[in-house]
Fold this sequence. Notes:
Elements: E1 2-9, E2 19-26, E3 30-35, H1 42-49, E4 57-62, E5 65-66, H2 72-82, E6 83-86, H3 98-108, H4 113-126, H5 142-155, E7 160-164, H6 172-187, E8 191-195, H7 199-204, E9 207-210
Parallel strand pairs: 3-8, 3-9, 6-7, 7-8
Antiparallel strand pairs: 1-2, 1-4, 4-5
Amino acid sequence: xxxxxxxxxxxxxxxxxxxxxxxxxxxxxxTTALTGPSGRGKSTLLYLLGLMLRPTAGEILIDGxxxxxxxxxxxxxLRADRFGFVFQDAALDQxxxxxxxxxxxALYRGARRNDAARRGMELxxxxxxDVPADRKPGQVSGGQAQRIALCRALLSEPRILLADEPxxxxxxxxxxxxxxxxxxxxxxxxxxIIVTHSPEVADACDxxxxx
Length: 211
């Protein structure tokens, strides 16, 4: 489903590459942990896989088709149609309510507002986000914000889910719930890729790739 082919990336001309000639495949129905020391490029790699950065060399392929070097509008459509993202800082819109943050990408894909809101509320309840749905992200804890971001990512049942430290702000019990949800999503046929420093989360994945 998703493949990186001879991928390289550097942040400027003359600087050492963060990623250099890296290749991997991420089949549907699997969870993959990306691990390694801080500063090794795990988050950068996730941004490359998610078509948010353009590689210096190499290519990202989706279903065998080149994706990272197409026009920006085409990449934006691919991200909307195929991907779900959980960013390390949650990346919630502080001006919108919790439920609007959860449903925004589903609405962009053309989902009906009432259906998206109902599904969003079910996910919030599943992950124990015990705050009013009309509250703003600035009024929730870091752990709640991370769970809200996970709800947003899962709402549209993306074929590719990229998660950057999705359990970093969570207690062990909630971490187990989140990992179960990611495994369940992979079992539905998705490719789930998780950047993590947690040995427990990495061990729960089908495989581990260390950078």
